Amino acid sequence: MKKGIILFKSKYGATKGASSFDEKAFEEIKTYNLKEDLRDIPVFYGRSMG
Fold first, then answer.
1. pTM of the full structure
2. What is the DSSP string of 1-50?
3. Rounded to an integer, what distance in angstroms lies between the CA atom of residue 22 and that of residue 30?
4. How far, in Å, CA of 47 to CA of 45, rounded?
């Protein structure tokens, strides 16, 4: 767990200034990656505000 937190902290700065949510792109990613029996898996978009 500690390694995961260290990795997260090292990558955190790269997420600042990321583009806003794009529903069309999100749907395209789901369609491309979730095929056949994976299609019904719930997927959500989450992002920190700070």
1. 0.51
2. -HHHHHHHHHHHHHHTTPPPP-HHHHHHHHHHH--GGGGGS---------
3. 12
4. 7
Dig out the tokens for 27 from the structure.
């749907």
Residue 30: count of CB within 10 angstroms of its CB: 15
With a CB cutoff of 8 Å and minimum separation 6, the contacts of 18 are: 47
45 and 26 in contact (C-beta within 8 Å)?
A: yes
Q: What is the largest CA-CA distance in the chain?
A: 36
Instruction: Please state the length of the chain.
Output: 50
Mean pLDDT to the nearest integer, 23-48: 87
